[in-house]
Amino acid sequence: MNRYESPLARVGIVLFTMLAASFFALPLLWLATAPFDARVNLTVHIPAELTLDNFRAVFQNSFAVRALLVNNLIIAGGAMLTVATVATLASYGLSRTRIPGRDILVYVLILFSSVVGGTAAMVPLFLLAYHLGLVDTHIGVILVMSGGLLPSAIFIMRDFVDTIPRSYEEAALVFGASPLHIFRDIAFPLVRPGVAVVAIWAFVNAWGAFLIPVVLLRSPHNMPASVALYSFYSEAGTPVHTLVAAYAFLYTIPVLVLYLIVNWRFGFRFFGGIKR
Amino acid sequence: MAQITLENVTKTFGAVTAVDRVSLTIAEGELVALLGPSGCGKTTTLRLIAGLEIPDSGRIFIGDREVTRLPPRERDVAMVFQDYALYPHMNLMDNIGYPLKVRGVPREELRQRVQEVARRLQIGDLLDRRPSQISGGQQQRASVARAVVHEAQAFLFDEPLSNLDAKLRLEARAFLKHLQHTEGVTAAYVTHDQAEAMALADRIVVMNHGKIMQIGTPLDVYRNPQNTFVAAFIGNPPMNLLPCHLDMAQGVLVVAANQAPLDLGLLRERIRVALKDGDSLTLGVRPENITLGAEPGPAAIPGKIYVTQPLGGETLVNVEVGDQLVSVRIFTEELPPLPEQVWLTLDLARTFLYGPDGERIV
């Protein structure tokens, strides 16, 4: 404890922390209660009348259900697979090859592209997808999403790969293993926690993506849940709180479950730091 | 088993020459220790043999085969690493059996061969454990077992004992030497510990700054160090090296530290090179080849007792000669009383003289 801190200052800090915490906690609390409430407004309150009618109504909307259960899984799953595979291979390569100026190259390229990516590149990305015939396809969305996520993913993965002692691979080399053997038997099992972290991170990002799908997709039956959420708005453009709440609740479940699984299996260790 | 030959091998990393024109032959069944301080190029030499580094120039042979540019897996060598390099996600069976698995040996045969080797190395009952569940000494044996299972042409050891505590290290040292003898393996053994090198090796290669300073049997290197580097590096406590210069007029060597003249006596005839007046030389004498006395003599230099260290069977006496400390080893349990001012008498038959370039001239 800092002995120069006066009791008054400490009370102030605690109050401020509580205020900040409740600012972030309230929407989550709303998300936890509102879906089960027959009468929803934008305040958090204990439901007067518990009901599952909201969910029933949501499942009547086949467009929204398809968006959540099919399109979102394809897009997020596809982005997860692509990002995890490419980031693992790329970070392994970047960590293990001797290229002059490699570190500067990696830092500049990766940080630069993760700053510039996304919204600013939307128009060129759209044109690129258009000329490749990838507009209104899930592949297009997956590729663009993966492209945006990869720099940071490689950055995270490289930290994991760098913690593997070189002597593991050198031993395997001396004992006759091919590079493929080494990757499969030694490097990959050891970076698995990193792969899991990156995979989940990619999944969560792609799961919640709105801008890229809405720009690249055309037909309603291809749209992901983030777009389908708007089908629970009235014709006047105001949200139907009960249905939005129920849909949003369903929308968050897979992410929560994945997070819990990874946390349970590996512990969430962002940016490597596996201490042996 | 095969012999290993290095011909004029050089390896540089940027501006640093890690291995500088090294030529060396390790005979079949011989264990050669590469000894030197850190950064002397001994590990790089080993990695060049293993194929983990490719030399800039020179050639490397294993048996009759030139392997200079072959990848490690085509060289048929086994290696034991300093950190053992056991895979944390595999049990010992899979770790030791990995060289066989990679070669596509059937599972059942692999199990048998691993069990056989593990039993011989006394880790047979640990095969279902992971490396983190066994002791350092057992890990070391497991990493040796993996090398034995590989049945290679040559063994390469990269400081395999440096991560063990002192007691275990002695045990493991004896075990490794026994293993090397019974298996009759050709081995290169990197270490910075001279006692380890002396105890294990058939021959020692002393290296410094990427160059070979001396090659010889342990006793040869100890008895006849060819230059001041080897003289100072081998032996514990190290050899006393006294800078001095030649005074032709008086026919004596003047010790730089206290200007004491020293009659060269017999040494004079054994000098192999032409010297001139004022040449700065280095006198090398091991602590056990000096006697302490109260009276001056022709081969004696004066000094002042600095400290005495009784070590049980022997006593180590540090004597101040000018501003330099000279160690003297006396093999008695109890030291007779000595005056504060003493005379150090050098055993000239076992005294070395090194020229201005540090090379031996006597």
Task: Give a description of the structure.
- The complex is a heterodimer of chains A (276) and B (362).
- With 276 residues, chain A is mainly alpha-helical.
- Chain A contains eleven helices and no strands.
- Chain A is 70% helix and 0% strand.
- In chain A, α4 packs antiparallel against α6 (138-162).
- In chain A, 36% of the residues are buried.
- Mean pLDDT of chain A is 86; it is low at 270-276.
- With 362 residues, chain B is of the alpha+beta class.
- Chain B has two domains: 4-233, P-loop containing nucleotide triphosphate hydrolases (Rossmann fold, 3-Layer(aba) Sandwich); 240-354, OB fold (Dihydrolipoamide Acetyltransferase, E2P) (Beta Barrel), CATH 2.40.50.140.
- Chain B has helices at 42-50, 92-102, 107-120, 136-149, 166-183, 194-200, 218-223, 228-233, 267-270, and strands at residues 4-13, 16-26, 31-35, 57-62, 65-66, 77-80, 154-158, 187-191, 203-208, 211-216, 240-247, 252-255, 261-263, 280-285, 290-293, 300-310, 315-321, 324-330, 341-346, 351-354.
- In chain B, the strands form four sheets. In chain B, strands 6-7-8-3-9-10 form a six-stranded mixed beta sheet, sandwiched between helices. A five-stranded antiparallel beta sheet of chain B has the order 13-12-11-14-20.
- In chain B, a hairpin with a 2-residue loop joins β17 and β18.
- Chain B starts with a strand and ends in an 8-residue tail after the last strand.
- The model of chain B has no long low-confidence stretch (mean pLDDT 91).
- Chains A and B meet through α7 and α8 of A and β6 and α2 of B.
- Total beta strand runs of chain A: 0
Strand content of chain B: 25-35%
What's the CATH class label of the largest domain in chain A? Mainly Alpha
Largest sheet of chain B: 6 strands, mixed
CATH topology value of the largest domain in chain B: Rossmann fold
Radius of gyration of chain A: 23 Å
Helix content of chain A: 55-70%
CATH class of the largest domain in chain B: Alpha Beta
**Strand line-up in the sheet with most strands of chain B:** 6-7-8-3-9-10
Oligomer: heterodimer
